Amino acid sequence: MKTNHHLLSAKETRKSPDPELLAGIESSYHIELVRKAIHLCSLSIPIFYFFTPKNVALAVFIPLTIAFLVVDVARYYHKPIESWFYTWFGWLLRRRESDREKKRLNGATYVLISATLAIIIFPKFIAVTSFIILIISDLTAALVGRRFGKHKFFEKTLEGSLGFFLSALLVVFLTPKIEYYVGEYLIGALAAAIGTIVEALPIDVDDNLSVPLSVGGILWAAYSIVYPMLNVYKFG
Fold this sequence. Notes:
Elements: H1 19-40, H2 44-50, H3 54-74, H4 79-89, H5 107-121, H6 124-148, E1 152-153, E2 156-157, H7 158-174, H8 182-200, H9 207-226
Antiparallel strand pairs: 1-2
Helix pairs in contact: 1-6, 2-6, 3-5, 5-6, 5-9, 6-7, 6-9, 7-8, 8-9
């Protein structure tokens, strides 16, 4: 689900906040914890894909993505589906995800669309790295930004974006490399920095889509320029 670590308003950060307002902020943060716990379960996607042939992974994720997409769109047009959907999942949705005028998809659908596109487009190790960055760093940015964010960075907070970048560097350090050259880690750091900026920019594209595609694109382009001799399809 899309990250949101926007700055609190002046009313929310005044020295003597209203108790009901504080309770609302705490409640919102707890709901965000639940959202991100669910989001963390998405780690099963890159782990599954890394140990699975591409055609098998696509045979799983394409039908699953279509099913989620159909239900997500149908909730805006079909009353029984709408009733069922909001009864079970309505409390997890952000306001923009239930906007009947703009009819936006929810974060889970975007995650599956993003995973499917990454598997189709990128070499396996790039798809896995970019998707793990989405899951871990998006989660870190949301929780750090909501709890500690005070300084604005584009449309998010500097604290949240710093959490995104540092956690993305950790992912780059731990994920597979082709030959484990120092330059591969530098390429990963560049992709982490670009992903951090993309996540914070005020663009009307869901983070679950924009982050992995931008990180994956930078990784692939950088490998092609710096290490054209390396086999980016070493893992599949």
